[in-house]
## 1
Amino acid sequence: MDPSLQEFFRRQDESDDSQFYVVPRKVVHIDDHAIAALTGLYRQILSDGDSILDLMSSWRSHLPAELKLSRVVGLGMNANELADNPQLAEWLLHNLNQDRALPFADASFEAAVCAVSVQYMTRPLEVFREVLRVLKPGGVFALSFSNRCFPSKAVEGWLYSSDEQHLGIVQAYFKASGGWRDVTAEDRTPQRRRGMEDPLFAVRAYKP
């Protein structure tokens, strides 16, 4: 890896992530208004019958309750959290920073989502390529983030970037990983309450 990229993806805590996530954290990492905005995004891009891959999942996925999804699979780091997620039909323990290969066949899902966790990816281009592989043609990959994180586990390049730059970083991941179309970056923070709650940003793209 290029030395400058090595510096970008360096973390304050390079110890095994499984140790950091061994204790369940059954708290939401964005407030109710940002959660509602995230659910609104999912309502816009997902449809009844879709199969969903929830990457870096936890005890809540914030998917619209009214959608009749055919399959929701969560990949995450804490079994207790994943088992308590009522929207997951299946879940697997999987550390994307150690194993970027996704344990699914090609074209398995209509959509993949990753909520408030992209800042922890140390090899995002490989992950994005794997997501592209497991999506069906026309499938969407949507990533969301706010201004919160665990600083010791976020990559250095994220910590020293602004919210606007974060949008650019995730767009760059899509571009550099290749094969995506219609990359869209948005500030999804509720307009009426801007400045009074957690912001929410999202970047999504589609498999041709």
## 2
Amino acid sequence: MNAYLCVYRQISPIPKDLRETEQVATEGSLLRKFLDEYKRSFYDWGDDPSFFAAKHLLGDVNRATWGVCRRDVRCDLEKGDVVVFFCGSNKSKEKGVWNYHFIGFGTVAEVIKRRKLLWTNPSYAPYREFYNLLTDSHGKQLETFHPLHKDWKNRAAAPYIAFDPARSAFNLDSPHLVATWDGEERQETWRRDQPARKIERLLFEERNIERRLRTSRTGYAHVKLNLLSDGKKERPGRPLSELTRALKLLI
């Protein structure tokens, strides 16, 4: 059993990338809707995890998939594993400030091989209009959002993850702001309100984890976190089923 904590970044795309992406969007298209919603949303640029597509195509954000980012985590996941997501946003009016919102958790329903299953198994047909596929049915690059990934083949070699809507809980409408990073310290500062304190205790303090979401002031700042093991031994804390039950109450 695996459980990871991951941060996805909600960036402000540079003008060139925005223009090139907008060229793909025709008036009234789903992509145009994404671009219109993006600035006031908690979506990833590229929609991975695919909360936007899950909401607008399948009617449920809990039916999200994950197929572009965190290749190393996706390679480790099996059915029943859990991923806890936070959204890190640097869209603050204060330059260099990042805000972190607790988005929720997903329980893995399917670990899908792209070309072999995603494009041939009829049960996966609802995902074929999502933006985080990376490849088409012939194994060629299929991306909408710029800049396109130069290492797309390597990313696509890792499984495409589908979450179980009955055992997942995501909040993209009003996720709780738990922490802020001002660019000075290595780690972010967590808020002291009751929901933020409960989330921090559940994910870090009860499991004797000293780090938080950020691990560096620069570079690759949001390293994945294994919630169940430190690589040498199991962490303390409540079982995974109890952890997700407690987290669900805070979403």
## 3
Amino acid sequence: MKALVTGGAGFIGSHLTGGLLEQGWSVTVLDDLSTGRKENLPRGARFVRGDVRDVSTVARLVRGQDYVFHLAAQVGNLLSIGDPRTNMDINVGGSLCVFEAARKAGVRRVVYAASSAGLGEAVRIPQAEDHPAAPMSPYGVSKLAAEQYGLSLYQVHGFPFVAVRFFNVYGPRQGSTEYGNVIPIFFRRLRAGQALRIFGDGKQTRDFTYVGDIVQALTKAATAPGAEGQVFHVGTGTPTDILTLATVMQDVMAIHTGTFHEPARKGEVRNSLADISKARRILGFEPRFSLEEGLRLTVEHLRTLEEPKPQAPAPRASRRPRTARRR
């Protein structure tokens, strides 16, 4: 089977690319490398540097593919608050470019990386797919809008579209900028010997999901019967508050720096928790990684990056050849 993975050099995309290759898929990756890295790509993937808003490039790459996994996006609540127009242009305009190219090319299915940020504040816990959607940031609006475009194309054209809403994904290769997930930020601070900064009282909850479980859900969403035109929530179904996360991470890394608090940030929900019963029933999805196991795997990866690489021995100084004496 052939697949195009947009954003395939990024955190989740590179793990998905590796998982598909392991299953024998032929994979093409489209990424502009604004946040992704070529070093993330496993051997065997075809890489094309480009923008999902480039109509001709996207149409050329989609042609001949069986499946499209659309993960390329500008991610982050704070980033979208500072520049909502660019966020909309990439996340909505770029998604429509991919969807239309895939529809015209007649691919078997498009799997879209949606986000729980599109739901906004929880009015009931856990959050099922029919939970009211009231996003609290332009990022959440953009992810929800692209999802709705895909579903509308399914309704009017029979477009083979599936949306998978992620809940707080973490794991190896995840960036640690101020716009990202709390887990890589905590990792960065712990490695630097710094206290962990907690916004608000720290009792806000999240459904932290190891990237390996996300890869499982995405691959199953591509081929599961009856999944088209559907939205699926993917997480662990287990809530963790930020104070508990800080304690567990310090224990896992055996680095105890303590915590300090700052005011809560705008655009962030209080609680988030996935109801994964639909994904279990239709996709056959089952989370395999506990929080502690996922964190330990992430720490192991970080430590491999820190290990000094063996250096090649310095070449011996060569002796200058003697010149023959004239007689």
